[in-house]
Structure formats: structure tokens, C-alpha cells
Amino acid sequence: RRARALMLVGEVRDLNGDSAAAYKAYRAAERSTAELLARDPENADRMFDHAQSVFYVGQLAWQQRDWNSAEAHFRIYANLADRMLATDPANPKWLAEVGYAANSLGALYIDRRRPAEAIASFQIYVAVTGRLAAAAPDDADARWEASQARGWLADARFLAGDLPGARAEHMAE
Predict the structure, then answer these.
(1) How do residues 41-94 score in pLDDT, each as one tens digit?
(2) pLDDT at position 7, please?
């Protein structure tokens, strides 16, 4: 409960433009969720809670252009998402987290002008969102997310100078 409360405090402070206070709250939540995960390291719900706090610390670091911290946190988030999915490969929530983590890393790599890594991350995002959309053909949000994943991959291919690949992804989008 403490970690959830700290996450909420961080979110409110971030929304109010106080990124320094938000960062402190998210870091405190991250320490809390890390401790809980250390007590039960195979618990996917504990992994999820920790992944959320790690993500928000990374997101604030990214917004402040602290590239190394952002990348480190997004990599931890991706690792936790992979671990969650390994506990229950049929769980769409865990699969979605793998996609979100890949998207976060890919967007960071675009900002850092690292197109090859962005492409690799967005290919994961495309695969995940495609699976989720195929599993829920009537879900407009899932189709939209899959479309957005293609757009991100197109941007990464464009940055890499792969204009035919970028065009193909935009057409698929």
C-alpha cells in the first residue's frame, strides 16, 4: 500500500509540474517495490509493481534528458516484463507490458539517434501489439495500439535511412 500511495503522490506532483518531488516519490516507491520483490522474487504481481515504479523513475529521467538513467530503468522494466510473461505466457496483461517496455526503449533510442536499437525494440512492440490485436479483433484500442507500433517502427526505419522500409511500415500502419 505504501508503494501505491507513493506512486500516486508522484503522479500528482508530476501533473502539477513538480518533477523533483515526483522523482523523490517515485524513487521511494521503487525502493519499496524492490524490497517487496526481493521477499518474493517469483511473484509476477510483485514484478509488476516494481516494474511500474521503475518505469516512472525512468520516464522522469527521460523527460529530463538523463539518458543513462532512463535507459537503465527502461532496461530493468523490460527485464521485469519478460520475467512476468515467463510466469504466465498466456496472460495478455504481461504480454502488453513486454510491448510497453519495448516501446519505451525504442522511443528513447530514437531520441538518442540509435536507429538500429530503436528498430529492434519497435519490432518487438509490433509483434506484441499484433498478437494482442489478433486475439481481440473487435477491440478498437488494440488495433489502434498495433497501428501506432507500426508508426514508431516507420520512424525508426526513417532515422536509419531505410526509406522503403519506413514507407512499408506506414502503409501497414
Answers:
(1) 999 999 999 999 999 999 999 999 999 999 999 999 999 999 999 999 999 999
(2) 85
pTM beyond 0.90: the answer is yes
Would you say residue 11 has pLDDT above 90?
Answer: no
d(CA 173, CA 4): 36
- 3-state DSSP assignment of residue 155: helix
Provide the b/e sequence for 113-124 (b: ≥16 CB within 10 Å): ebbebbbebbeb
How far the first Cα of the chain sits from its last, in Å, is: 40
Integer CA distances (angstroms), 148 to 17, 57, 168, in order: 27, 24, 14
Q: Tell me how far apart the alpha carbons of residues 9 and 102 are, in angstroms, rounded to a whole number.
A: 26
Cell numbers for 42, please give them: 517469483
Alpha-carbon span 29 to 51, nearest angstrom: 11
Over range 101-113, report the average pLDDT. Answer: 97
* CB-CB contact of 125 with 102 (8 Å): yes
Q: Which three cell numbers stand for residue 48?
A: 509488476
Angstrom distance (rounded) from CA 148 to CA 142: 10
Which three-class secondary structure string do you get for 47-72? HHHHHHHHHHHHHHHHHCCCHHHHHH
